[in-house]
Please model this.
Amino acid sequence: MYKHIKVPSEGQKIRVGADGSLVVPDQPVIPFIEGDGIGVDISPVMRNVVDAAVQAAYGDKRRIMWMEVYAGEKSTRVYGKDVWLPDETLEAVREYVVSIKGPLTTPVGGGIRSINVALRQALDLYVCLRPVRYFQGVPSPLKRPEKTDMVIFRENSEDIYAGIEWPAESEGARKVIKFLQDEMGIRKIRFPATSGIGVKPVSREGTERLVRKAIQYAITHKRRSVTLVHKGNIMKFTEGAFRDWGYALAKREFGATEVDGGPWLKLPQGVVIKDVIADAFLQQILLRPEEYDVIATMNLNGDYISDALAAQVGGIGIAPGANMSDSVAMFEATHGTAPKYAGKDYVNPGSLILSAEMMLRHMGWTEAADLIIRAMEDTIRAKIVTYDFARLMDGATQVSCSGFGKAMIERMGTGGAQRAASR
Ligand SMILES: NC(=O)C1=CN([C@@H]2O[C@H](COP(=O)(O)OP(=O)(O)OC[C@H]3O[C@@H](n4cnc5c(N)ncnc54)[C@H](OP(=O)(O)O)[C@@H]3O)[C@@H](O)[C@H]2O)C=CC1
Ligand SMILES: O=C(O)CCC(=O)C(=O)O
Ligand SMILES: [Mg+2]
Model:
């Protein structure tokens, strides 16, 4: 029994079968977190679009039973001050296997640590999967945006996101600096008296499970290459080790062999495993995006790369994602809470809708997922777009956040439109 979560009277849990695959009932209960800031705008639009797509694809045979669970600011209103991530939210997300969330605010400098990161760590959602593709008609700063077609595998459980840090001049920072100087012989901290300290753990296990998923994905989806993106020339034993462990795994577990004496490798299936230093990567994705395909990288690099690549295909208004463990999956947009637009029915709901599209595909509901893609393409092709695209497009019809959702639903056929109208 939950304290504040209301379990729908109808519907069943999605389960993980003995072979690891999902067992999805026709009326699955799916937990959702509304999200802070623009979460209040985009989450209901996403649910409307998903309901319409499911209705249009399967009629009354299938239906998602949405179950609200709480995190972030809304949680403090429901559960009380300082309860940002209730235990029962974690329990429900684990128990119901597949969920979706809006963005959650993290203050800069002081204040609470990221609830987004806390969710990923508590549930060990170690893969942050962010596909980046171009939709015809979306305004982009590139001449050939369709050449950007990448899938980011961002390590989601370690790196500096572990949150091990001490503020400058604190007791903790003083102790760590003293330890480094006295016990480890470190003389290179330029201003020891006023340095904050952060720790960056990167492990072999963490690297291997992430790179393994990226390689498996590349094989299954017949992609051309997996690139390990790192700053291993500078951070030798974290980012450099990530590269070395990644290559070693590809050889040991996937039978990869060296190309022209290495370090690049090739799998028996033809997938090339290569690496690139992060700064060079960031200029090459603009100049020669077609050279990159599946990307495997650490947490911070993956965060930067996600937004940079999203910009190449139209911005973070249209950048979806998923956080995944071997069993649990929680889908979420790449962007944050965009606070200045909160509650204005203004922003692009595309990122969260496309995150839901990934969710439907993950559940095996591919017909509904295909309908969402088609409706998104048709709506953008008709130049019906939110402000972010309208400001860069000639002849666009600018619509609100909910207006964009309605325009998508209208393009799904009568079943979908009826279901959406009845909400
Ligand atoms: N996973 C999560 O929950 C995430 C949470 N955050 C948190 O969100 C908060 C705000 O972060 P901030 O750095 O401002 O980044 P945001 O991603 O929230 O917003 C930055 C800018 O991106 C554009 N943008 C974002 N979402 C949309 C959308 N749906 N449609 C159109 N444009 C969009 C807007 O650009 P413009 O101003 O040009 O219109 C916006 O001002 C922080 O607390 C941060 O920690 C950040 C990222 C992820
Ligand atoms: O947790 C946050 O507030 C930011 C997270 C973020 O930027 C991301 O996951 O891409
Ligand atoms: Mg980010």
User: Anything to note?
Assistant: Residues 38, 103-106, 116, 316-317, 332, 335-339, 347-348, 351, 388 surround NDP (ligand 1) (CB under 6 Å). Residues 1-125+335-423 form a domain with the Isopropylmalate Dehydrogenase fold (CATH 3.40.718.10). The mean pLDDT is 96. The chain is about 40% helix and 15% strand.
